[in-house]
Each structure stands twice: as C-alpha cells, then as structure tokens.
Amino acid sequence: MPARAPLGYAMVALAATLFAVNGTVSKVILGSGIDAEQLTEVRCAGAMLGLLLIVAATRPASLPLRRSELPVVVALGVVGLALVQWSYFYAIHRLAIGIALVVQFVGPILVALWARFVYGEDVRARIWVALVLALAGLLLVVEIWQADRPDTAGLAAAALAAVTYAAYILLAERGVRTRDPVSLSAWGFFFATAFWSVLAPWWRFPAGRVDDDASLLGNLAASHLPVWGLIVWMIVLGTIVPFALVVAALQRISATRAGITAMLEPVLAIVIAWAWLGESLDAVQVSGAAVTLAGVSLALSSR
User: Are strands 213-215 and 224-226 parallel, antiparallel or unpaired?
Assistant: First the structure.
C-alpha cells in the first residue's frame, strides 16, 4: 500500500462521517418548518459562496468558465446538485434516513450500467451480480410484501436521488477533464443556486424561522439550537469540509477505493439516526441494507 494511502482512506472515512451526521442535522432543520426546496436552496448558495472564495484565494486562474463548458456545468448544477439534494432532503423528511440513503446509493450501479450500454466501456461481468444483490437488498429494505411499507412518495424521491446521483457522477467525471474539481463544483453550485432561485424565489424564504430555536428531536428533543446554527453546520461541516476531504483523498487513493470507503456513510447514518432520532430498521431491513451495499461495492469495482 502506498505510504499516502492510509491518509486518503482516513479522509474519505471522515467525510463519510460528516455526511452521515449531516443527514440527521438536515432532518432537524426540516422539522423546524423549512421545506426541502428552501433547504436545498440555502445549502447550494452557502456551498457556492464557500467554494468560490476557496477558488478565488487558491487558484483564481481556474475560475473563468469557457463557453464550451457550459452544457456540462449547467447540467451538473441543475441535475447533479440541485435535484439530487432536493430529492434526498424530501426523501429523509418522509422516510428513515437509512432507507433513503440505501436507495440513493444504488446510483453507482446505474453509472456502471450506463458505462456498459451507452459508453460501450468494458465493464466486468460482476456488474450483473451487483445488480441482483442491489435489487434483492432493496426489496428487503422496502419490505415490499408488507402492507405498511415505507412512504411511497418518499421512496420515489429516494429513487430520483439515486438517478440524479448517478448523473452527478457521470457529469462530474466529464467535467474534470477540462477543469479542477473545486472550481467545477463551485460553478455547479452556482447554477444549482440559480435554478432554485427561480423555482423558489428568495423573497418567499421564511427568514423569520432562521432565528427560531429548533428541537433536536428524538432522544435529544429536550435540547434546542438556533436554526441558523444548524444551517451553518450543514453548509460548512456537512458540505464544504467533507467535499474538500474527498477531493484531497483522490490525490492519494483511486476513485474506486474512495467510492467503496464512502459506503461507510449509509452505515453510519443508520447508527446516528438510531442513536439521535430513535429511527431504527428491523432485522430484515438491516440485512437488505447490507446486501444492497455489498452490491454497490461490487459495482464500484466493475469499471
């Protein structure tokens, strides 16, 4: 193992932990009365400002956007960032965080299938095993045979999150051919912010709620924090810092290894949601989550 590899794995693991905690933090904010559209808009705008400042301070020459890059960067912003975040927030507002994340993390399998049938890439035969495992696991997670299975609208949103997450991977993979990941993401968040600013104009944002104190819900329901503090946490420690960790890790380990390590996120998210919110999956759903994540790990290693 290269000398720098352990640090790379540690960076991705820490990023996965921060993303996992952010799921519960976001659910608390949603519980305060800010809806999924508004929360997505705030997160995109905050991430845009933070990343643009980082790029301006560290590599200003990379900031100008060429006209030829516009189609990919706009698509990355609207589909790969704006919609993936909205669908995830909508899903966790109606589902247990673990269920939403397990469904979303099927995205890499869709990427491998797209690479095989659209790009014509050589994808290993294990992708078919991965697909079977993921689908079988999802059936267990959703408990399709139960009359009181998880919320249909929430599951649809989680499925949309999987599709848009796959689109994000494919668009980002193409975008980094012409520019660095940080400036690419900064511009992506710019167009994501512009998209939501049109659909959910800022003058409709419930600014009065930002100063309210929000219950931390679940096992911490007696504790309260200001909504603005939770939003700052979401933007800084739930978006900018973990993103920077992943980018830095990719200089030390391969994207495949980073992707497999990132599978810690749904596992940690399930544990955190159980300890904090009291959310839990039954034994069948936990087994299904394990089978699905095993399938996704296979898919990540198939390209």
Answer: antiparallel
